[in-house]
Write a structure and sequence with these properties.
alpha/beta, 12 helices, about 30% helix, globular
Length: about 400
């Protein structure tokens, strides 16, 4: 496809529509011979190739999690000199929030095309001894009042899950169903790190990590990267593939310390989701598939509730009977998610890549279809950061 002519971003008389025009994964899973910078570059090149546009149109750039000056260092490595940058860091929700910022910038004419890129060798670093301890958020600021008690990030999620179980009768078997269905979805994804089927008993009998989470309730550790290119509507005519439009977005933060979390059974997705659906002019019942951050099984369950796919407290029953499978009533994490496909750190951008892949009809044997055989039309990607500290939600659609 011919590349659109590069023009300087400028204010427009009306907000421009914004589409995702390119997506790609870098090598993922087990990648022992690449640096994080190399994975960024690989994903970026592939996303640009996927779009069919020339790199000269990219005047906006977003990056987080690598280097001292993340967007500056990575942009330099990629040979980009953007005039709009973002390095928002809110954990796993970073990429949905950053994408929302990019949409606003493009719509206002402050940028024409924004490239978001992520890459990590989290697994390879552990294997090679380059990382000798788990992620620590330190003991300064508000966290100083919790650090003396010694609870870890995973234990905070476990505490929240236990509260949901106590308050609503949610069972550990229901949580295990989420891991089982994620693995079943991964079976049709050739890029997934783990594809062999598992059962509820397999999940329950695994080594305990933080009660009630056994090993298979927790995300995997992998290497990998991905990239997403967003562009203004006038570039869509020159793209190699059909666009996926960003219809609405929302973001919210909740707490840093557990003592300031009003309700362990409610995540900030309750706010970001409501805003995204309202701004898109759609309802949860209109959505064909959902890509949800799943560092732990409880994240999927409570986010489904908070996005409005079921009532509060009904998540346990909702995830039963294969509802989350690719051919289920609400396909969720159709690539296998962080529980089975890949989880190289801040996974939120992978949610967007998979949602676009499904809406374009590019998922092969893992493709979601409507009951009448048509491709899905609407998807939601919802990222969560910290220990339910932040949330970003995007509603994406074809046409």
């Amino acid at each position: 496809m011919a590349a659109a002519a590069h023009t300087r971003a400028r204010p427009h008389p009306r907000p421009r529509r914004v589409a995702i025009v390119g997506t790609a994964l870098s090598d993922t899973g087990r990648v022992d011979d690449a640096t994080p910078y190399a994975l960024h570059a690989q994903a970026a090149r592939r996303a640009l190739a996927d779009s069919g546009l020339d790199r000269s149109i990219v005047d906006g750039f977003g990056s987080a999690g690598l280097g001292t000056l993340a967007p500056v260092e990575v942009a330099e490595y990629l040979g980009l000199k953007p005039t709009w940058v973002d390095s928002t860091g809110v954990g796993g929700a970073t990429w949905e929030v950053m994408a929302a910022h990019a949409v606003d910038a493009i719509a206002a004419g402050h940028a024409n095309a924004v490239l978001l890129v992520y890459g990590s060798t989290a697994r390879a670093d552990i294997k090679a001894g380059r990382r000798t301890s788990n992620l620590s958020f330190g003991g300064r600021g508000p966290l100083q009042f919790e650090v003396p008690y010694g609870h870890t990030l995973i234990s905070k999620y476990a505490m929240a899950a236990r509260r949901h179980m106590h308050q609503y009768g949610t069972t550990v078997e229901q949580l295990a169903e989420i891991a089982v269905q994620a693995r079943a979805n991964a079976a049709t994804n050739p890029d997934a790190m783990f594809r062999d089927p598992i059962t509820v008993d397999d999940v329950l009998s695994g080594p305990m990590i933080a009660d009630p989470f056994t090993k298979l309730h927790c995300c995997i550790r992998s290497d990998g990267g991905c990239a997403v290119l967003l562009a203004a509507e006038e570039y869509v005519r020159d793209t190699a593939k059909d666009p996926v439009w960003v219809l609405g977005s929302g973001m919210a933060v909740s707490h840093t310390t557990m003592s300031e979390w009003d309700d362990f059974t409610v995540s900030p997705a309750a706010v970001s989701g409501r805003l995204a659906f309202e701004r898109a002019g759609v309802r949860p019942s209109d959505i064909d598939l959902a890509e949800i951050y799943d560092a732990f099984t409880y994240m999927t369950l409570v986010t489904l509730e908070d996005l409005g796919f079921c009532e509060k407290g009904e998540g346990g029953a909702f995830v039963e009977k294969g509802r989350l499978l690719r051919d289920g009533a609400l396909p969720v994490n159709t690539d296998g998610g962080g529980l089975s496909a890949c989880h190289p750190g801040m996974r939120g951008l992978f949610l967007v890549v998979e949602a676009v892949r499904q809406l374009r009809g590019e998922a092969g044997s893992g493709q979601v279809r409507k009951p009448d055989g048509r491709l899905p039309e609407l998807a939601v990607a919802s990222g969560t950061g910290g220990w339910f500290c932040s949330s970003g939600t995007l509603v994406l659609g074809r046409g």
